[in-house]
User: Which sequence fits this backbone?
C-alpha cells in the first residue's frame, strides 16, 4: 500500500477528482495549502501599492491505494492536473505500513 500526496493548482481539483474516481480510487482527502516552488510567487498591485505574493494557493490531495493501483493513480493525477506551465505541482509516493478502519477494525487493504 502507498500514500499518494499531490500538490496541484486549485482549479484542477474537479478534473483530478473525476479522473481518480474513473480508475477506482474510492476516497481522497483535500486540503487548501499555500506554498511556492519554481514560481517563487508574483507581484500584485493593491490600492496603488505593489506587493509580493510569496505563497501561492494550492490544493493538497491525499489518497491511500493498494500497490497495484499506484501507477494508474499517478498517471490519472498527472494527466488531469497538467497545464504544461510552471507551478503545475508535484506528486509524492510514500510507503504505508498499516491502515485501520476505525468503525470496523478492518486492517490494511480491507480498510481501504
Assistant:
Amino acid at each position: 500500500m502507498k500514500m499518494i500526496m499531490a500538490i496541484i493548482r486549485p482549479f484542477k481539483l474537479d478534473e483530478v477528482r473525476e479522473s481518480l474516481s474513473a480508475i477506482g480510487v474510492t476516497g481522497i482527502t483535500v486540503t487548501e495549502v499555500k506554498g511556492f516552488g519554481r514560481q517563487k510567487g508574483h507581484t500584485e498591485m493593491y490600492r496603488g501599492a505593489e506587493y509580493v505574493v510569496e505563497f501561492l494557493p494550492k490544493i493538497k490531495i491525499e489518497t491511500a491505494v493498494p500497490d497495484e493501483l499506484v501507477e494508474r493513480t499517478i498517471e490519472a493525477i498527472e494527466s488531469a492536473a497538467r497545464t504544461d506551465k510552471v507551478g503545475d505541482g508535484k506528486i509524492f509516493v510514500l510507503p504505508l505500513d498499516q491502515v485501520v478502519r476505525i468503525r470496523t477494525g478492518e486492517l490494511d487493504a480491507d480498510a481501504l
